[in-house]
Amino acid sequence: MNNILNKTITYLGERKVLTTSFLFFAFSYLQAQSWQAMADFPSTERDDGLSFVIGNKAFCGTGYETGWTETGDFFSFDFSTLQWTPIASLPSGMERQYAAGFSAYNFGYVFGGVKTGVFLNDLWQYNSELNLWTQQASLPSVGRSGSASFVLNGIAYVIGGKNSTEEAIDEVWAYDIQLNTWVQKNNLAFGSRFRASGVALNNKGYLIFGRDENNQYHNELYEYNPTTDSWIELSEFPSDGRMHSSLHAVGNKLLVLAGIDSNANYYNDMWSFNRDSLLWEEYEPIPSFGRKGGMSFSNGIDVFYTTGINQENIRLKESWRSINPVGINTSLSCLDLRVYPNPVRDFLILEIQAYASNEVCHYRIYDAFGRQITSGKLLFWKTELDLNELEAGVYLLRLERNGCHRTHKLVKQ
């Protein structure tokens, strides 16, 4: 097994202490993670596509295919069956690469990108129930490609990128999904970024890597506070700067995959950053080529990676699954939570099976736009939630217990 000696980097202010541990990390390496080859992406080989997740499915599309052509086709990937299914493509003429993808509850979004040298500022919304694309309000600024994105409380943040005149930009824009409006936020205080990677975790946004306007590759990890519209630097990645990587939130950790550095080295590695301990840990790499620009997504436990381009400029369509890389408890006792009745009129009953008196289960309810409506703790094996004040409609109920979570589509009558 390659690279079995995992490495941990501890950051203490300005001090950086490198430690190694063979037995402990080798054990967790073997027990918590393995890679599994999945069915190939069911279309042409490509790089620089995008993905977003809605419920129990990931949606992947766009990108630059073999033959130097932009694409607009899309496919869903079912986390339960591990199967690909074709869905509606973007409208004809809307093909692109380097677009940003994000989602809020039952809607997915495609923003910007580039097509035959034209930089785009348009926004397309995907309705997964109707299998329908609808154009939304365009960004009230110049088109751009290679932006990072994340969603916090129903607001999508589109960060950096490049346009027709600048190799990298430092702008941050916020898109209100309910109001279908854009507002410009403070520019990045740490400079411009093209093809950085972003993700949301616990009501904060995170950004890593990217190339600036001077062609410098960065390895800093930043945290965004939407309340103060400000960024802080948390850490540095324990290797060279990169771009074209993927960033995910799993448990309380951020996972970084693949990418390319300034010396044109292509990577197949995966690292985690623990937001609580500020530790970096290296995991088992993808058992295949180093690559950049693939489409990667997560169901909150496993991490998936498909397509991309390798060091020989060969575009790929192979797909891989990292099974529970951070070791989240997925036992029955962790996930055995009953929720009824559904649909619900007044009181929703939540039952914790095999309840222990010293444990706490958290719940959160989100509306159709991804905004948190209410939250709380379940301290007993059976709890009634009074939902009489909620308007009729569709909601998302998220339950968290013992370090894992599950979500339910909730219908209020």
Supply the number of helical segments. 2
CATH topology of the largest domain: Neuraminidase
CATH homologous group name of the largest domain: Kelch-type beta propeller
Which range best describes the helical content: under 10%, 10-25%, 25-40%, 40-55%, 55-70% or over 70%?
under 10%
CATH architecture of the largest domain: 6 Propeller
Strand and helix map with partners:
Layout: E1 7-12, E2 15-20, H1 22-32, E3 35-38, E4 46-47, E5 50-54, E6 57-65, E7 69-78, E8 84-87, E9 100-104, E10 107-115, E11 118-127, E12 132-136, E13 148-152, E14 155-159, E15 172-176, E16 181-184, E17 197-201, E18 204-208, E19 220-225, E20 230-236, E21 246-250, E22 253-260, E23 266-274, E24 279-283, E25 295-298, E26 303-306, E27 319-322, H2 332-335, E28 337-340, E29 347-352, E30 361-366, E31 372-378, E32 382-386, E33 393-401, E34 404-412
Antiparallel strand pairs: 1-2, 1-24, 3-27, 4-6, 5-6, 6-7, 7-8, 9-10, 10-11, 11-12, 13-14, 14-15, 15-16, 17-18, 18-19, 19-20, 21-22, 22-23, 23-24, 25-26, 26-27, 28-29, 29-32, 30-31, 30-33, 33-34
